[in-house]
Prior knowledge:
The structure holds two protein chains of two kinds. By secondary structure, chain A is mainly alpha-helical. Chain A has a domain at about 20-105: Rna Polymerase Sigma Factor, Chain: A (Orthogonal Bundle). Chain A contains eleven helices and no strands. Chain A has helices at about 30-50, 55-75, 75-80, 85-100, 110-115, 115-125, 130-150, 150-165, 170-175, 180-205, 210-215. In chain A, helix 4 (about 85-100) crosses helix 9. The longest helix of chain A has 26 residues, at about 180-205. In chain B, about 45% of the residues lie in helices and about 10% in strands. Chain B has eleven helices and six strands. In chain B, helix 3 packs across helix 4 and helix 9 crosses helix 10 (about 195-205). At the A-B interface, helix 1, helix 2, helix 7, helix 8 and helix 10 of A face helix 2, helix 3, helix 4 and helix 5 of B.
Amino acid sequence: MSALAAPFIGDHYRVTAPATVSHPVPGPETFESIVDDYQRRLYGFALRMTGNREDAEEIVQDAFVRAYRALAKMDPQQRSELRLQPWLYTITLNVTRNRLRSKRATNVALDALADPDALLNETQEGPDQPQHIVDRAADMVLVEQALLQLPMHLRAAATLRFIEGRSHPEIAEILNQPIGTVKSHVHRAVRILRRILGPQVGRIVPSDRPTAAEEEE
Amino acid sequence: MTPLRCCDVERLWDEMREGVQPRREHVLAHLRACPECQEIYRENEGIAYCLTCLPLVDPPQSLVPKILDHIKATVKIAAPDSIARVESPIGRLYVAFRHTGITAVAVDRGEDEELVLAKLQRRLGRGLIPSQAPQWVTETVAAFFQTHRPDLEKVDISELTPFEQSALRAAATIPPGEVRSYGWIAEKLGQPTAARAVGRAMARNPVALLYPCHRVVDATGALHQYAYGVEVKARILALEGYHSKGAPPQAARPPR
């Protein structure tokens, strides 16, 4: 029997963080390029955290304003020691947290979840599209909603880990938590997602992906 | 080595994907023998795959200009403060203020005025426009020297970091005529290991006197440091009725 070369521990879609962009010492002067470089990434992160485009947009705006203010106050040495990317994620996460806390009562995403069928039907309306694309979109809505069901700290860990592709040490830096805590949060998030999405996962993952059993000789 | 239990194996899944797990061979051996764990790994991979499949949504084109406008608007808020000279029992003070309150107090030590202003501007991150002190400013400063309890409603520290603000508020609870240690403030903030951070916050206090960072000393009771010299710290404390019982404050070094 060969070593278990299953995709689940293999390289098929290993998430690796792209090399951190090393910026010249950031200052307010170069801020525009920082906005250019990071707005897309932070917007995506805020969107996954909130499930709402308007919220995501406002969160990113607010986060950049805060970052700008903070940078303006730093002296050159503090700036040169700053690790820009995790720092920006941290600010974005803090803004997200404050925002979600203040509007927790009106969480539309969770209401929708009460009736997943309604969600599916909703997605299937509209102009004629090939059935597999419609199905795919509906599945993605399910994944999106499942993520939003997680408690915020687990959602942050799972989003950073699997969607943003950050390493455990990077996430620890962003969340200001020990690495062990990060690992356990990721683990718990996956467990809950498995419970929520269980039956759907098999349908979403393409069937031509080799499974553990098939990889074994 | 003891064989791994299923719950350990499950926990190691994410690390296994990184390929750095030192017990990799053990996990693989367990997986080969345990269909349940194989199933869990497969499902977990499915979950991770699903998450990576979530579509990347681009922000609207308008986002960058909106952000930059927002920032410009904030910068406008950072209008310059006014700065005035105010005479006091410990000599001349420079007092920066705006309509929200006094934002900085510096003790004149005979340095070049431009130098003092430049330092203050850097600390505040705003420009300073020389002007006359309005009555509420002189009154607030005078109140400090009379009662040693100035009206902190007239002092604006909102631009400082949250930690600096709470450290200064804690310092303001020390009664005049008494001193406390950096560690005492740290305890009070619920962060007993943050004495050094408290020291930094005190050193960076822009509103000397009014927020009484001079009442904070080191654990031995030595006056430690002061932005305007330890001898000034001792003088202010003496005015408040406190006399260092520990090592006498160092005399000012004679100018060369």
